[in-house]
Amino acid sequence: MLTTVVVVVVVVYGALVAGMYLGQRKLLYVPGQVLPSPEAAGVPEMSPVPLATADGLVLMSWYAAPPPGRPTLVYLHGNGGTIGDRGYKVRPYLDAGLGVLLVEYRGYGGNPGSPTEPGLYEDGRAALAFLEAQGTRSNQIILYGESLGSGVAIHLAAEMARAGSPVAALTLEAPLSSVVDIGAAHYPYVPVRWLLKDRFESAAKIGGVSAPVLVVHGERDSVVPIRFGRTLFAAAQEPKKAVWIAEAAHNDLAEYGLAEAVLAFLVERGAIRPEREPTVMKMP
Q: Which residues contact 58 (CB under 8 A, 6 or more apart)?
């Protein structure tokens, strides 16, 4: 009888692990497919633009060019939804006189392809190539990574540093040290460290970033617990700054001064000049 129970448990557990392994990208990436207009998202000054990736995809994203002499913020969003959900989050940066490129990934917002870690890096590179074609220099680029997008932003910032073309700043909202760490925290009964395909090993990469780094994280974050943000911050080079917000969780940082913290950091580090007061738009 005991042997039968053990066999059943092993079979059920094996089926669970196999199912999670085969479906892991559906767990990691939760793309929205319906993309509203920029006007409907509260950013009417932004326009759809195509980003051509090195592997042959054309990804529709949104762009607002900066005024002369001002930098551009490249916004790399998290694993869920679309860029249409981030209008209120980039509104303060547009109001502060920055250019903004809202990057939509492959498989999101009606774009072709399917999201993977290497694919998202290609999407980020396509965004940087687009800005280069607009005449934007690397020192006029602010990389902004939200949640999973922090892994893309860190990877790109480290690549640009190795190429001798560092960005002006790297700002990270609720970032993760690695998908492996998050997976192990949420699924302690599954050997995720052996099974994960897309790992986003950001803590191992951020030391290669030479730009100023800002980390903003909520202490009540249950999606990406703050200990992983602290791990990432500890691995970053100076100059760096952390803003730990006691009341905030994962998706409500905008309600607790996120944009103000980002803009203050960019002014402190000389990435922008304070020319206009930002308007913080309430989350719908």
A: 50, 51, 52, 112
Query: What span, in angstroms and rounded, lies between the C-alpha atoms of 234 and 206?
Result: 10
Continuous segment of H or E residues that includes residue 227: helix 226-235
Q: Are strands 58-64 and 47-52 parallel, antiparallel or unpaired?
A: antiparallel
CA angle 207, 174, 284 (to 5 degrees): 150
Domain range for 33 is: 2-268
Percentage of the chain beyond pLDDT 90 is 79
Residue 132 maps to a domain: yes
HSE of 171, CA atoms in CB hemisphere, 13 A: 27
Output the pTM of the full model.
Answer: 0.90
Mean pLDDT, to the nearest integer, of 117-133? 98
Write the CATH number for 46: 3.40.50.1820
Quickly tell me which residue has 């040290």 as its tokens.
177
Rounded Cα–Cα distance for residues 90 and 1 (Å): 61
pLDDT digit string (tens) for 211-222? 999 999 999 999
The pLDDT tens digits for 53-88 are: 999 999 999 999 999 999 999 999 999 999 999 999
**Residue 94 falls inside a structural domain:** yes
Structural domain contains residue 99 = yes
pLDDT at 200 over 90: yes
- Which element (helix H / strand E) includes 202? helix 202-205
Contacts of residues 179-188 at CB distance under 8 Å and 24 or more positions apart, as own/partner, are 179/28, 179/148, 179/151, 181/228, 181/231, 182/223, 182/224, 182/228, 185/225, 185/228, 187/20
Mention every residue, 6+ apart, whose C-beta is less than 8 A from residue 138: 160, 165, 166, 167, 168
Helices (H), 141-191: 149-162, 179-186
| 278 belongs to a structural domain | no
How many structural domains is the chain composed of? 1
